[in-house]
TrEMBL record:
This is Membrane domain of glycerophosphoryl diester phosphodiesterase. Residues 1-80 are annotated as: Disordered. PANTHER family: EXPRESSED PROTEIN-RELATED, OS08G0107100 PROTEIN-RELATED. Residues 98-363 form the DUF7847 domain. The lineage of its organism: Bacteria, Bacillati, Actinomycetota, Actinomycetes, Streptosporangiales. The chain crosses the membrane at residues 111-129, 169-191, 212-243, 249-270, 303-326, 346-376. Residues 19-29, 59-68 have a biased composition (Pro residues). Keywords: Membrane, Transmembrane, Transmembrane helix. InterPro entries: DUF7847 (IPR057169).
């Protein structure tokens, strides 16, 4: 390839067909313009149909003739999509998204899994402590049933309530903070991994820390949208239940079941519609409301596919997370319940429950973030021809033999081939 306009030299042995080798003589600018007629190893511009010319700002490069399928003749398939990083630079299928997410974790395990483990540990410790204390109380009741607290034992009741719900509330608060920051860091790592580049934890944090307030804004707005209906409903149920008769409790229970049946589709709808808001905040530099509008627009036209992929992904990660965490959780529960109320049983139960919760969340966090980020890239490639921009930049990056930091700027919407 010479100055981005001539055909590439033939692929040497050892390089895959999907990843042409880097070339020497880098130009003054790290990237060529999206319309500068990038060439494939076959001499064809990426993204154009065979038999047509490339009508961009650069010189027109005709396609070489392809034999048409005729009797006695084979058909020459189009060249495979360029794949410099974790995904092929073309619209993605569900298998491509799952494969790309796994490659994201494998290509940078220290940053991805290390950060996820820290976030999971911080969120798991308060929950594990509360559960261990509660289990210790239950163990004392099992050993001596006469020691069960009565309604008049206010201190014991308050202690049990605090241990059961206090740890959970603290865990949710910690999870809200650390998972929000983790999502931003993982999204930035993913944005570079698409081009085959890697980022350390420190580099990713330095790039994303300015977007953390906007990320909290997105997560906070989504939490308000999802939680407010629940709070209103619970308050109404409490008010109706104060003076309710036994007959009234039947229709209150029926109303609760109806509400939950309606709330689940509402939750799934909101989650799918705003799934790309964190990516828009981190990769496009948008504010909270603008990012949520951007996500809504990207999902429009492909809502059911986006919802289906997110839902199936949740089922998969839930299954794997359960397999990893359940053995430790069950062991911790047994130790805490039958530990005779000793301090050692509380410590052991806390440790086992923490390990189980950490292992499960350490896998869940990066996998869900990876699927969401790659699905965002797929929607941009389908609706904005963004794959042409990525292919052009990737070819130039391979010509130089390195991934320039300005690759992050390509995610800005101004670089879309079709705004």
């Amino acid at each position: 390839m010479s100055d981005g306009h001539g055909p590439l030299p033939e692929t040497p042995s050892g390089w895959s067909a999907e990843q042409p080798p880097p070339y020497s003589a880098p130009p003054a600018s790290p990237w060529t313009a999206p319309g500068s007629s990038p060439q494939t190893p076959y001499g064809e511009p990426y993204g154009q149909a065979p038999g047509h010319q490339f009508h961009g700002p650069g010189p027109q490069t005709p396609y070489p003739p392809h034999p048409h399928p005729q009797a006695g003749h084979g058909f020459v398939p189009p060249p495979p999509a360029l794949r410099p990083g974790i995904i092929p630079l073309r619209p993605l299928g569900f298998g491509d998204i799952l494969d790309g997410t796994i490659k994201l974790i494998r290509s940078n395990p220290k940053a991805v899994l290390g950060l996820s483990a820290v976030a999971a540990l911080l969120a798991a410790v308060p929950l594990a402590v509360g559960q261990a204390v509660l289990l210790d109380t239950m163990g004392g009741v099992i050993a001596d049933p006469t020691s069960a607290p009565t309604a008049s034992d206010d201190l014991t009741t308050l202690y049990g309530f605090a241990s059961q719900y206090g740890g959970t509330l603290i865990s949710y608060a910690v999870q809200f903070v650390v998972v929000t920051m983790l999502t931003g860091v993982l999204t930035r790592i993913l944005g570079r991994a698409v081009f085959g580049g890697t980022l350390s934890s420190g580099e990713a944090w330095r790039l994303v820390k300015g977007r953390i307030p906007a990320l909290f804004g997105v997560v906070g707005l989504m939490a308000v949208i999802m939680v407010v209906p629940l709070i209103v409903f619970v308050m109404l149920i409490v008010v109706f239940s104060l003076n309710a008769t036994r007959g009234d409790l039947v229709w209150i229970a029926g109303l609760s079941i109806l509400f939950l049946g309606l709330y689940l589709p509402f939750y799934l709808f909101i989650r799918a519609r705003f799934a790309f808001a964190p990516s828009a905040v981190v990769l496009e530099g948008r504010g909270p409301l603008d990012a949520m509008r951007r996500s809504w627009d990207l999902v429009t036209g492909d809502f059911w596919r986006v919802l289906g992929i997110l839902f199936v992904t949740s089922l998969l990660v839930g299954l794997v997370s359960g397999v990893l965490s359940v053995p430790f959780t069950v062991a911790g529960t047994l130790v805490g319940a039958f530990g005779a109320g000793s301090a050692g049983s509380i410590v052991a139960a806390t440790l086992l429950i923490t390990i189980g919760a950490t292992l499960g969340a350490m896998f869940t966090y990066p996998f869900e973030a990876g699927v969401s980020g790659l699905l965002y890239a797929d929607r941009r490639m389908r609706s904005e021809a963004f794959d042409l921009v990525l292919q052009t930049a990737a070819i130039e990056q391979q010509r130089q033999g390195w991934v320039h930091a300005s690759a992050d700027e390509l995610w800005h919407p101004s670089n879309s081939a079709r705004p």
